[in-house]
Design goal:
This protein is of the alpha+beta class. The protein has 2 domains: about 220 residues, Penicillin-binding protein 2a (Domain 2) (Alpha-Beta Complex), CATH 3.90.1310.10; about 350 residues, DD-peptidase/beta-lactamase superfamily (Beta-lactamase, 3-Layer(aba) Sandwich), CATH 3.40.710.10. The chain is about 40% helix and about 20% strand. The chain is built from 26 helices and 21 strands. Helix 12 packs antiparallel against helix 26. The N terminus is likely disordered.
Length: about 675
C-alpha cells in the first residue's frame, strides 16, 4: 500500500509539473501562430528588425522534507511599453489612453502610483506612501520644480510637459499622466522598467496582440506561487537583478531582466532553481510591435529543492511563539513590549534544521507591495532573528562552564561547593554578585555539586568555577561546542561573539578583569550567540559530543522529480574534547526538568526532557530581561534539540511553554499514521 501511495505521488508530481510547462508552451505557440498569420499582409509596410530574445525557464519548486509543496512557479504574462520608442511618436498619448481604456474595459488593473487624485479638483494623496513621496520629491528636483507647487499647478505643468491636447478631458488627461509619469520616473531614478499590467490572462494577451498597439508588447515570464504562509525568512524571495548581480549572473547566461533569488533558500540554491533559459527569434517593426516569434531553443525548467524543514513543525513554532508574545504583551506597557523572538529545532544526529521561526514575520505573497513599509518598521520583521540575531545565552551557558570544569580537572561529579548566597571573593573591590535565590530567601542553595548546580541554576557554583578556570578554558570549550562561530548552514548567518580578553580589548577598548570570568561563567557579559548556534550546541550535548554542520538542504531532484540530482549527507565537523564527561552534563539537564527550574512544565511530561532555562539581564527591571530556553528530547534517546529566545521575555521559565508545544506536535506526529497533504509531491 505504501509503495502504491508513493508511486501515485510520483505520477501526480509529473502531471502537475508537465501540466504547467504545457500551459506555458501552448501559450507561446498560440502567440507565435497568431502573430505569424496576422503579420503576413503588413510585412512590407514596416522596417522589420529581427533579434533573439530570452525565454525565461520555469523556476524549480521548493518542498519540505515530507514532500509538501511550499513554493512553485506558473507562467505569467506582462504588458510592457517600449518607452524610448513611444516618446518619439506624435500619437504617444493616444496610444497610452487607448491601452488604458482597453485594460479597464476588460477588468485588467494597471500600474499607476502617481500620488494625485484621479478626479478634479486635483490634489495630492493624503495617504501617500514613503516611496511615493520620495519619488515625487525626486521628480521635482530633477525638473527643478518648486517642491511646494500645488497639485492643480503641477497637473497643468504635466499636461504641457507630455504634450496632452487641450481637447482631452481632465479625467482622460489624468489617466495619461499616471502612466507617462510612471515610465518617466522609473527612467529618472534608474529603477526597473515599467510594466503596464502584470500577470494578465491569455485572453487579454490575445486582445493586445489583435489590436496591435504600437510600442506595446507582451512579456512572458513566470510567477512564484506560495503554498504556505509560514517560513518566510527561510524561503526568501526573488526579484530583478541589481547591476552588481548582473555582472555575476550574465557570465552564467542570465538575461538582463532575469529574476533571481534575493534572500533565503531562493538565493542559496539559485543555481539549481533557475534552470536554463530558452531562445526565441522575434521580429518587430519600427515601433517595437511584434510581428512574429519563433522558438529556437525551448527553456529547461529548474530543479526542485527539498528542504530539511518540516512545515507542520514550522507552523507550530511560529504560532506558539507569536501566541506567547501576544500573551506577554497583553500585560505590558508600550515601552516594555516584547520586540522579537526566535525558535530553532534541529535533528541531534545530523544537524538538519527542522524549523527556524523568527518573530515578527511577514507575508511573502505581498512582500513586493509592502517592502518599503516592512524595511522601515522598527520591529524589523525582515530580520531573521533565528539565524542572524545574536543574544546573551544567560544560564543556558552553564553547561559550557560545567564541561570546561570537568574536562580540565577543576571539578568532578562529586565536588561540592557551599552556596552562601553572596560571592565575596571580590568584595574588596565593591563587587559581590549574588545567587538568584538570595533576594528571595536571604541565603543560598547550600551544598551543591555540578548536577544540582545545573538543576537549580546556582549562580554561586558557577561564579566559583569560572573564577577557578579562567576565561581561556571557558572560551575554548565554548568554541569547541560551536558557539561564537558559524554553523555551516547554507543561508546567511551571524557568527555571534565569543567573549575573550582580545575581543574586549579590540571591540570595547577595555582590559579583561578577573570579575569578567565569573560573569561570563553564568552566561552574562560579552558572549552573544544565535538561536541556531544554541540549538546546535544542545544537539552536540545530546548526541554525545559530535558537532554537525547545520543544513536546511535535504536533496535536489530533477524538474520532473524522476531523478535525484544531489543528496545532502550529514557533515560531522568533530568530536569535542571531553565528550566522555557529557553524561554528567546530561544528568544535570534532566534534573532541570525533573526537580529544577523547568519542573513546572516538564516534571510529569510523558517524554523525558533534558533542559535548561536562562534569564539575560538587560537592565531596567525583570520585564526587560530576555528569556532563553534550550532542551532536547527524548532525554534517554535524543531526536531533536530546541533553542528559543524571546526579547524582553522575562525568563526562560516564562517562555518554555513554547518548547512544550513543539514537543507535543513532534512526538504526537511520530506516533500517529502520516496523512498525505493535498500538495505533497514527494516521490
Amino acid at each position: 500500500m505504501q509503495k502504491l501511495y508513493k508511486t501515485s505521488r510520483v505520477v501526480i508530481a509529473a502531471i502537475l509539473t508537465f501540466g504547467i510547462l504545457g500551459v506555458y508552451l501552448a501559450a507561446l505557440y498560440k502567440m507565435q501562430i497568431y502573430d505569424a498569420a496576422g503579420a503576413r499582409d503588413a510585412w512590407s509596410a514596416f522596417d522589420a528588425t529581427t533579434q533573439t530574445v530570452t525565454i525565461p525557464a520555469a523556476r524549480g519548486d521548493i518542498l519540505d522534507r515530507n514532500g509538501v509543496l511550499l513554493v512553485s512557479s506558473r507562467p505569467q504574462y506582462n504588458i510592457t511599453i517600449a518607452r524610448e520608442r513611444l516618446i518619439k511618436r506624435d500619437d504617444a498619448n493616444e496610444i497610452v489612453l487607448n491601452l488604458i481604456k482597453t485594460a479597464l474595459d476588460h477588468g485588467v488593473s494597471y500600474t499607476d502610483t502617481f500620488p494625485m487624485t484621479t478626479g478634479a479638483p486635483f490634489s495630492y494623496l493624503l495617504d501617500m506612501t514613503d516611496s511615493q513621496r520620495d519619488r515625487l520629491q525626486a521628480y521635482f528636483e530633477y525638473f527643478k520644480l518648486d517642491p511646494e507647487i500645488s497639485a492643480s499647478d503641477f497637473f497643468v505643468w504635466l499636461k504641457e510637459h507630455y504634450g496632452i491636447d487641450y481637447k482631452t478631458s481632465l479625467p482622460d488627461a489624468r489617466l495619461i499622466i499616471g502612466v507617462r509619469w510612471e515610465m518617466e520616473m522609473r527612467a529618472i531614478r534608474n529603477l526597473s522598467a515599467y510594466v503596464f499590467a502584470e500577470d494578465v490572462d491569455v485572453n487579454f494577451v490575445a486582445v493586445i496582440k489583435e489590436r496591435r498597439f504600437p510600442c506595446v508588447n507582451v512579456e512572458t515570464t513566470s510567477r512564484r506561487v506560495y503554498h504556505t504562509d509560514y517560513a518566510a525568512h527561510l524561503l526568501g524571495y526573488i526579484g530583478l537583478m541589481s547591476a552588481e548581480e548582473y555582472a555575476v549572473y550574465k557570465e552564467k547566461g542570465y538575461a538582463y531582466n532575469a529574476q533571481v533569488g534575493k534572500a533565503g533558500v531562493e538565493q542559496a540554491f539559485e543555481d539549481y532553481l533557475h534552470g536554463q533559459d530558452g531562445k526565441m527569434v522575434v521580429t518587430t517593426d519600427e515601433d517595437s510591435t511584434i510581428l512574429s516569434e519563433r522558438v529556437v531553443q525551448a527553456p529547461r525548467p529548474g530543479s526542485n529543492v527539498f528542504l530539511t524543514l518540516d512545515i507542520g513543525l514550522q507552523e507550530v513554532c511560529e504560532d506558539s511563539l507569536a501566541a506567547k508574545i501576544d500573551m506577554i504583551n497583553a500585560e505590558r506597557t508600550e515601552e516594555d513590549r516584547v520586540t522579537g523572538g526566535a525558535v530553532v529545532v534541529t535533528k541531534v544526529d545530523s544537524g538538519e534544521v527542522l524549523a527556524a521561526a523568527s518573530y515578527p514575520t511577514f507575508d511573502l505573497s505581498t512582500l513586493q507591495k509592502y517592502y518599503s513599509d516592512l524595511e522601515n518598521n522598527s520591529s524589523k520583521p525582515l530580520f531573521n532573528r533565528a539565524l542572524m540575531g545574536s543574544y546573551n545565552p544567560g544560564s543556558t551557558f552553564k553547561m559550557v562552564t560545567a564541561l570546561a570544569g570537568l574536562k580540565n580537572g577543576a571539578i568532578t561529579e562529586r565536588t561540592q561547593v557551599v552556596d552562601t548566597g553572596v560571592y565575596t571573593a571580590y568584595a574588596n573591590t565593591g563587587f559581590s554578585p549574588v545567587c538568584w535565590i538570595y533576594p528571595l530567601t536571604g541565603g543560598g542553595h547550600g551544598k551543591v555539586n555540578v548536577v544540582s548546580a545545573l538543576a537549580n541554576s546556582c549562580n554561586y557554583f558557577f561564579y566559583w568555577l569560572g573564577d577557578t578556570l579562567g576565561i581561556d578554558r571557558i572560551s575554548q570549550t565554548a568554541a569547541d561546542l560551536g558557539l561564537g562561530g558559524k554553523t555551516g548552514i547554507e543561508l546567511p548567518e551571524s557568527a555571534g561573539v565569543l567573549a575573550t580578553p582580545q575581543y574586549k580589548r579590540e571591540k570595547i577598548g577595555q582590559s579583561w578583569y578577573a570579575a569578567d570570568n565569573i560573569i561570563t561563567a553564568i552566561g552574562q557579559g560579552y558572549n552573544q550567540f544565535t538561536p541556531l548556534q544554541l540549538a546546535n550546541y544542545i544537539a552536540t550535548i545530546a548526541n554525545g559530543g559530535t558537532v554537525y554542520s547545520t543544513t536546511i538542504l535535504s536533496s535536489i531532484r530533477s524538474a520532473d522529480y524522476s531523478a535525484l540530482v544531489y543528496e545532502k549527507e550529514p557533515v560531522a565537523q568533530r568530536i569535542i574534547e571531553g565528550a566522555e564527561y557529557l553524561p554528567i552534563i546530561q544528568k544535570g539537564m534532566m534534573e532541570v526538568s525533573r526537580e529544577g527550574t523547568a519542573k513546572s512544565v516538564f516534571a510529569n511530561y510523558p517524554i523525558a526532557v533534558a533542559s535548561k532555562t536562562g534569564t539575560v539581564q538587560t537592565g531596567g527591571g525583570a520585564n526587560l530581561n530576555n528569556g532563553v530556553f534550550v532542551c532536547y528530547a527524548p532525554a534517554n534517546d535524543p531526536e531533536i534539540a530546541i533553542a528559543l529566545v524571546v526579547e524582553k521575555g522575562t525568563s526562560g521559565a516564562t517562555i518554555m511553554q513554547i518548547a512544550k508545544d513543539i514537543l507535543d506536535y513532534y512526538f504526537a506526529k511520530e506516533t500517529r499514521p502520516a496523512a498525505a497533504a493535498d500538495n505533497t509531491l514527494l516521490p
